[in-house]
Write a sequence for this structure.
């Protein structure tokens, strides 16, 4: 029962840290300053990747939920739980950074825009996932419930994504505005801005993999300690 | 004044700095929570192993 990280994870830790520092350097020294919004526009380079990672994490929870219901293997329950925790962390980053961007640009910290409203509901749904899990004692029942919940809750992710394209919204639309009423269309990004954005997107995906791996290892360790407790109690 | 720039870029650097503090602090807090929980589990494991050893000695 070792807690030391495998070599691949140790390498991934270093790679992620280096990539993160490069991403920060690109954001501050390579991407030009946006003329209309000023420096606060730089939040975009980490805000959108955080939102992407949140969606990806909740998709992984959906896949893990399906895998658990099909196989009954508890490792999928641990993957689902771990991914929700990482997803919530990134979604909180998205929400808070969005508020900081909105204050000087929209002149308000918060508005009940379709994107912001659906995103808040999404975040609350996944907080509820963690809280409801805590309330179920039986591990089999808990894992089945969490799997079904993780699958159903994922519906909130595409609703949040398409909210700005389908409804009247002031949130900026980065890719493909289908709604002529949308107010938040953005000007095309300059090449250095696009390069920085895609690099940050990749970096955040790697950061997600690293954090998820660590969280799954913790969940596996917790499971082994639980088994040891059960063994000690029965002895 | 006739040729003065029509658009002046606002100073929003304070909000940007606050945003990047969040981007750095939240992952650090998450990692800290992983370390804290792992430490607690390790302590639990050592306690259980100690109990089991005591039981075996009896």
């Amino acid at each position: 029962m070792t807690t030391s990280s495998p070599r691949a994870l140790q390498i991934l830790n270093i790679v992620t840290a280096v990539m993160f520092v490069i991403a920060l350097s690109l954001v501050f020294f390579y991407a030009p300053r946006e003329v209309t919004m000023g420096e606060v526009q730089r939040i975009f380079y980490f805000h959108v990747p955080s939102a992407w990672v949140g969606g990806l994490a909740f998709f992984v929870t959906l896949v893990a939920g399906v895998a658990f219901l099909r196989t009954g293997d508890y490792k999928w329950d641990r993957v689902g739980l771990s991914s929700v925790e990482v997803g919530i962390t990134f979604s909180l980053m998205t929400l808070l950074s969005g508020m900081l961007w909105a204050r000087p640009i929209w002149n308000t910290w918060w508005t009940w825009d379709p994107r912001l409203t659906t995103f808040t509901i999404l975040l609350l749904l996944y907080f509820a996932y963690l809280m409801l899990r805590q309330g179920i004692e039986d591990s089999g029942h808990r894992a089945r419930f969490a799997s079904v919940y993780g699958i159903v809750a994922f519906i909130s992710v595409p609703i949040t994504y398409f909210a700005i394209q389908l409804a009247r919204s002031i949130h900026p639309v980065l890719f493909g505005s289908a709604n002529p009423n949308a107010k938040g269309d953005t000007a095309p990004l300059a090449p250095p801005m696009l390069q920085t954005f895609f690099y940050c997107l990749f970096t955040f995906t790697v950061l997600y993999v690293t954090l998820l791996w660590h969280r799954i290892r913790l969940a596996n360790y917790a499971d082994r300690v639980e088994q040891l407790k059960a063994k000690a109690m029965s002895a | 004044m006739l040729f003065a720039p029509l658009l002046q870029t606002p100073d929003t650097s304070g909000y940007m700095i606050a945003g990047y503090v969040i981007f750095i602090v939240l992952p650090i807090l998450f990692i800290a929570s992983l370390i804290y929980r792992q430490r607690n589990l390790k302590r639990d494991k050592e306690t259980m192993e100690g109990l089991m050893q005591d039981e075996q000695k009896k």
